[in-house]
Each structure stands twice: as structure tokens, then as C-alpha cells.
Amino acid sequence: EIVMTQSPATLSVSPGERATLSCRASQSVSSNLAWYQQKPGQAPRLLIYGASTRATGIPARFSGSGSGTEFTLTISSLQSEDFAVYYCQQYNNWPLFGGGTKVEIK
Amino acid sequence: QLQLQESGPGLVKPSETLSLTCTVSGGSISSSSYYWGWIRQPPGKGLEWIGSIYYSGSTYYNPSLKSRVTISVDTSKNQFSLKLRSVTAADTAVYYCARLMLYCTNGVCYNWFDPWGQGTLVTVSS
Prior knowledge:
The complex is a heterodimer.
Chain A lengths: L3 E4 L2 E4 L5 E7 L7 E6 L6 E5 L3 E2 L7 E6 L2 E6 L9 E7 L3 E3 L3 E5 L1
Parallel strand pairs in A: 2-11
Antiparallel strand pairs in A: 1-3, 3-8, 4-5, 4-9, 5-6, 7-8, 9-10, 9-11
Chain B lengths: L2 E5 L3 E2 L5 E8 L8 E8 L6 E6 L5 E3 L7 E6 L4 E6 L8 E13 L2 E9 L3 E5 L2
Parallel strand pairs in B: 2-11
Antiparallel strand pairs in B: 1-3, 3-8, 4-5, 4-9, 5-6, 7-8, 9-10, 9-11
């Protein structure tokens, strides 16, 4: 069974700075990885699919990279609305989410 | 614009069956390109996929929940439903429904959930 590990659990960043979030799979998932953003009291929102394709309406400051077992979500210049929890999700035999990274204001 | 909306009781007694329905609007549930899924999130915790269904009725479930879960579809009502039997306090969570996209190109397939319903909190308590 694949295990998805996100790091760090919490990332403290100042507005305007770059944030780099990591997602690691215990075995290769090719490029079948998605990223979601979740704000308090809201449903998750799709940011990235196929490891690097931005979903419709997602700002260019969000970018995804990686393949195989190592993936990265980068937010180039954090805006106030970007402070949230971010989840990665792979699909091998079934969908599996990582534990999440909380991006908080430094 | 496709929208999903969960509905059902917000309180279920231990050992009973949790029943939720997801109504899809702004598009047809009978599309060959999608599955439809249920995901849950216990308070303060992460996301757990419960299971998914195709419009034909084909289902697959999270192995950890498979023995207690049934997902069904009603294409005439553009709805799909979740039943989770023998619930305990550990099943207390926000339950989301979502469309599971399937996209294959050059021999590689990709899958992701979009859009999601707003979620509904189900509490298991006597």
C-alpha cells in the first residue's frame, strides 16, 4: 500500500515570500498527483493535477513539479488568501491523500 | 457550472446507518468521463477517500471501509448516495461528495477530484 507523506506539517511564511511544500510517495505514482487547497470551513479546492497542470482559474503563482515519488508545490509569492492547508493526492489503485501542510503567517 | 450538494441527517446514533445523498446540478451524472466519489474529514484531521461510483453503477471502495459501505447512483435524479453501516464515534466527520475526473493521454491516466460539494457534518452520538 502506498503511503503519502507531506512535509513540513506546518510552514511559517511571510506574505510575499516563496513557499515550497513537499509530497513524497512510498512508491512511484508516475505523474498522477494532485494538489488541493483547503481554508477553514471550506471544501478543498483543486489547484494542480497531473503533477504540474494548473486547474482552471488558479493563479500562476502556484506551480507543481515532480514525478515518481517526489513532488513539490511552490507558491512563488504568498498572498494573504494563500494561508491555508494544502493536501496532495495520488491515485494508484485508489485515491489517497497526504496528511497536509498548513501554511501559516510568520 | 457543475455543482454538488450533500444532504442527509447531521446526527446518527452509534451502530446505526449513516445515509447521505449528493445531488449534481449543472451537468449530467451520466458522463463517461467521470466517476463520482465520497470523501470524509474528521474534525481537525485530514482527508479520507470512502469510495467512488460510475454512472453505470460500478463501484470501488476504500479497503478499510469496504465491509460497511455501499454507494449507489440514481441517474434519473442526477444523484448518488452513501450508506455507512454500524457507525461509531470514529465516523464523525465532514462528508464531501466530489466528481472524480479521469483523463488518459499517451498511455498514462490521471485522476483528480473537482469540483467538491460544500460538505456536511455528520456526528455519531447517542
